[in-house]
Amino acid sequence: MVRPPSVRSVGELTSPEVSQCLRATSILCLPIGAVEQHGAHLPLDTDVVVAEELTRRIVARWGDELDLWQLPTVSISLSREHDWAPGTLSLSIQNFVALLRELAGNFVRALPARNLVIVNGHGGNRGVLDNLIHELRGDFGLNACVIHPFDLAKVDMNATSPDVHGGKSETSVMLALAPQRVRREAIARPANPPDDNVIAALIFDRGASFPWRTDDPRLTSSGAIGEAHAASRELGEAIIASVVEEARGVLVRLLENQRLLPPTSRPE
Question: In 220-248, which positions are buried (b, 16+ CB within 10 angstroms) versus exposed (e)?
Fold first, then answer.
């Protein structure tokens, strides 16, 4: 018997159910997280929790309408900016790309779906992913896109300093998703707040790129950059709700891209 359509995890299907449930127009949803330091108050797998749970909620909200299927999570990615800290795990760019290309080949071999949305829980993956999706389309015939949740959310953060890593938004989302995992007693205002101009120059300036790191005392004294002390569960729930709602437009655009592919690139 085929599982009900509400069960939308690829890993929960049996082998015969794959060809019965998935089509070329189905959308595979791949969460990518990271295992890295997030200051003293958030766990190493914060980005895994965020990517996996947001993917689950997106699939639950839009899965039946747009035929979404959740893939197993990629939990280790590109975290060299945090490799000074105990517990941080990181792939090289070469191996990260090789892993995702290997997975793409497996998706095409093993599954009929030819649409892929990556839900990226770690900002440090962005530059590589933005380029890699061109290869996924050209080399594997996968119509792909990437969702960057904290940039996708349309929520007024009311932040008075740059929110980069383990700060107000990330801590708020963890308070909503896994409050038992947040070490609230370790959240404190920075003793020596960083210079916002330095953060802007090293991290946000579009005119130049730098290999910034979270052991740079100009940026942070704790490994976190942002106002974690101002985080709240309510803000986290608002961010999550916004990401889920805004995701529909991304997914619809992805399907439109598939329909507009040149005839030689369209799935059978």
Answer: bebbbbbbbebbebebbebbbeebbebbe
Per-residue model confidence as pLDDT tens digits over 159-187: 888 999 999 999 999 999 999 999 999 99
**234 assigned to some structural domain:** yes
* CATH number of the CATH domain containing 65: 3.40.50.10310
pLDDT tens digits, one per residue of 24-62: 999 999 999 999 999 999 999 999 999 999 999 999 999
Helices (H), the chain: 15-21, 46-66, 93-110, 126-140, 149-152, 168-177, 196-199, 233-259
Residue 268 in any domain: the answer is no
**Can you give the residue range of the structural domain that contains 119?**
10-258
pTM over 0.90: yes
Tokens of 142: 């996968």
Structural contact between residues 236 and 262, judged by C-beta atoms closer than 8 angstroms? no
Q: How many domains does the chain have?
A: 1
Is 5 within a domain? no
